[in-house]
Design brief:
The protein has six helices and two strands. The protein is mainly alpha-helical.
């Protein structure tokens, strides 16, 4: 249970980092909307992303992994459809935001040493 809250905190920090660094990736509201957006993003990552990755394996292999970045952007876009008004971003803003969120998430996971169960 503690790992869940650490991962949620990491996701919140990664989203806020992308919000700070990008002009066309704007999260609205304070802490509670950010928490809500992070929770929904975690659920969409858990439910929808594996299906998208499975059905796009040929594209991921063909593009040498670049299409995986497009899947990350699609997951953030789907989250904005579930929670309209929480994030305002252009298409490139969502794409670059997803790249930054992925980088920040990886970096913070390494720092806090959050690991999957073996």
């Amino acid at each position: 249970m503690i790992k869940f809250f650490v991962r949620l905190f990491i996701t919140m920090a990664a989203l806020k980092g992308a919000d700070i660094f990008l002009d066309n990736f704007n999260l609205h509201g304070g802490l509670f909307p950010l928490l809500w957006f992070s929770l929904v993003l975690c659920v969409v990552n858990w439910l929808v992303k594996p299906v998208l990755v499975f059905f796009s394996i040929p594209l991921i292999v063909l593009t040498i992994g670049f299409f995986y970045l497009c899947i990350n952007a699609l997951v953030i876009y789907l989250t904005t459809l579930v929670l309209p008004g929480e994030l305002s971003a252009t298409g490139w803003g969502i794409f670059l935001g997803s790249v930054l969120v992925s980088i920040f998430h990886w970096f913070l996971t390494v720092i806090f040493r959050v690991r999957e169960k073996n």
